[in-house]
Amino acid sequence: MASRPSTTAARRTLAERDPVLGRHMDAVGRYRIEVDRISSIYRALAEAVVYQQLTGKAASTIFHRVQALGGGALPAPAELLALDDTALRGAGLSRAKTAALKDLAAHAHDGRLPELAEARTLDDDALIERLTAVRGVGPWTVQMLLMFRLGRADVLPATDYGIRKGFQRVFRTRQLPSPRQVLARGERWRPHRTMAAWYLWRALD
After folding, report:
1. pLDDT for 3-61, tens place per residue?
2. What's the CATH fold of domain 41-148?
3. CB 192 within 8 A of CB 154
4. Which of 53, 93, 131, 168 is the most exposed place for a label (fewest CB within 10 A)?
5. Catalytic residue positions, numbered
């Protein structure tokens, strides 16, 4: 219940700063982002790596196979590092994803990967810098984690095609906007860019 006033205030601020976006938000209705809280940065990134470029069902099957290698839970970093690559490949991972998971485990094992408590103290840019040091983890992957797993309020994944296409529809631009153009207009949406992004995605529904 406590979040409702802040959500209402954020919508009001966005509408005042960007009336075109405001009219679109009114047409869409209530802000209903779903945040699936995490217990571990390591697990969240492992899942993200496995799910990259796969359908949900196929990725879920592979992730469960990887968990089976750890006795039903994701192998701890040291355990995953000790696994032969053929075991991970046998679970359905590509060579690239196998290498990415091994690098993720190495970062977690030696402390380069922040624990969840530390991650919560880092600002968005610092967390993006830390996590994209892991092989196979790009800015978009971290931005999705920030928005949908950590509940950060001011994230704008400007390279996302859905965001750019939604922007084109909402603002009726003749061409698909560049990420730079999205970011430029997005300056007026701070510090509520996650909300703005969610509404841009809704333009494609």
Report:
1. 444 899 999 999 999 999 999 999 999 999 999 999 999 999 999 999 998 888 999 99
2. Endonuclease III; domain 1 (1.10.340)
3. yes
4. 53
5. 160
